[in-house]
Amino acid sequence: MTDEQEKSTVEPIRVGVLGARGRMGAEVCRAVDAAADMDLVAMVDQGDWLFNAADAGAEVVVDFTTPDVVMDNLQWCIDQGISAVVGTTGFTEQRLDQVRGWLERKPGVGVVIAPNFGIGAVLMMQFAARAARHFESVEIIEQHHPRKLDAPSGTATHTARLVAAARAEAGLGPTPDATKDEVAGARGAEIDGVRVHAVRATGLVAHQEVLFGTLGETLTIRHDSYDRVSFMPGVLLAVRAVRTRPGLTLGLDALLD
Ligand SMILES: NC(=O)C1=CN([C@@H]2O[C@H](COP(=O)(O)OP(=O)(O)OC[C@H]3O[C@@H](n4cnc5c(N)ncnc54)[C@H](OP(=O)(O)O)[C@@H]3O)[C@@H](O)[C@H]2O)C=CC1
Ligand SMILES: O=C(O)C1=N[C@H](C(=O)O)C[C@H](O)C1
Questions:
Q1: Which entry of 144, 158, 197, 223 is annotated as an active-site residue?
Q2: Is the ipTM of this complex over 0.90?
Q3: What UniProt keywords apply to this chain's record, in alphabetical order (predicted)?
Q4: How far is CA 173 from CA 26, 70, 91, 218, in A?
Q5: What is the DSSP string of the chain?
Q6: Ligand 1 site: residues with CB under 6 angstroms?
């Protein structure tokens, strides 16, 4: 049998998309539809019956909905034995523990949850974590389109936690800052001791800068998503991998190695 014949005997992955009419969901539907090794079998949005995905035989569900519905969606997928790729934000440690608990009862099911599916964004977070130990100051500035519901972004929150963990490991104390916050919020939000500033403006898609400072120098690590197609290679990578990774995979890092 030739390689081509062998390839054509591999069954396409049957994919359902939740939040299919949203900005990301619609882009995911186009990407899955265009992928030769995937079949788009269900497009579910607000008001649609979730069971459409199970009835259509989805093996993997991709969720880009909202933080207030994603947990119910995930619990349903795991109960149905359907693996899930999740880009929706709002995952606290408590939520992640809950997902791990559901997965323990369904050992064959895989879930990938990633705060950002952009390959450049994943690298930006890795570089930031690597730089963190060498700089006494660090602040994160995330910039998004004004229809975004949450702030700070999932990416900024995740970056802050990575940076904070690297600083703690290197024995760095709090960042130096003598400023009195005379107007509430002027110095941004604080996540694990790292200041995070959220900007919302028409024309933006998804952007982040991590600004490091030490004596006589600064380092800025910046990533820009100008178009939601930037997230698609990461989403498709996760769809291809998730069924062979039972349990919870956090972030794309493990899939890129
Ligand atoms: N991880 C990553 O790489 C990325 C993550 N995101 C995150 O993805 C999420 C979605 O973003 P975005 O696409 O911009 O948001 P949108 O608001 O454009 O899309 C969300 C969609 O989900 C629908 N929805 C709401 N409730 C349900 C439900 N119960 N079942 C099915 N669908 C439902 C909404 O319908 P309706 O409008 O009628 O409420 C809407 O169509 C956000 O949390 C965002 O932060 C975004 C980009 C990249
Ligand atoms: O809502 C968005 O648009 C995005 N959400 C994710 C986040 O909150 O980090 C990923 C990316 O920044 C785009």
A1: 144
A2: yes
A3: Amino-acid biosynthesis, Cytoplasm, Diaminopimelate biosynthesis, Lysine biosynthesis, NAD, NADP, Oxidoreductase
A4: 44, 36, 27, 18
A5: --HHHHHHTSPPEEEEEETTTSHHHHHHHHHHHH-TTEEEEEEE-TTS-THHHHHTT-SEEEE-S-TTTHHHHHHHHHHHT-EEEE--S---HHHHHHHHHHHHT-TT-EEEE-S---HHHHHHHHHHHHHGGG-SEEEEEEEE-TT---SS-HHHHHHHHHHHHHHHHTT--PPP------STTTT-EEETTEEEEEEE-TT--EEEEEEEEETTEEEEEEEEE-SGGGGHHHHHHHHHHHTTS-EEEESSHHHH-
A6: 18-19, 21-25, 44-46, 64-67, 69, 87-89, 114-117, 154, 231
Tell me the whole-structure pTM to 2 decimals: 0.95
CA distance linking residue 215 with residue 33, whole number of Å: 51
- What does the pLDDT look like over 114-172, one tens digit per residue? 999 999 999 999 999 999 999 999 999 999 999 999 999 999 999 999 999 999 999 99
Q: What does each C-alpha distance from 30 to 18, 24, 122, 134, 201 come to in angstroms?
A: 13, 10, 23, 42, 26
Q: Is 170 annotated as a binding residue?
A: no
Burial label, 25 (beta-carbon count in 10 A; 0-12, 13-18, 19+): buried
In the residue annotation, 134 being an active-site residue is answered as no
Counting ligand 2 atoms within 8 A of each CB, the residue from 155, 229, 250 with the most, and so the one to mutate, is: 155
Nearest to 160 by CA among 116, 196, 114, 189: 196
* Bond preceding residue 233 cis, omega within 30 of 0: no
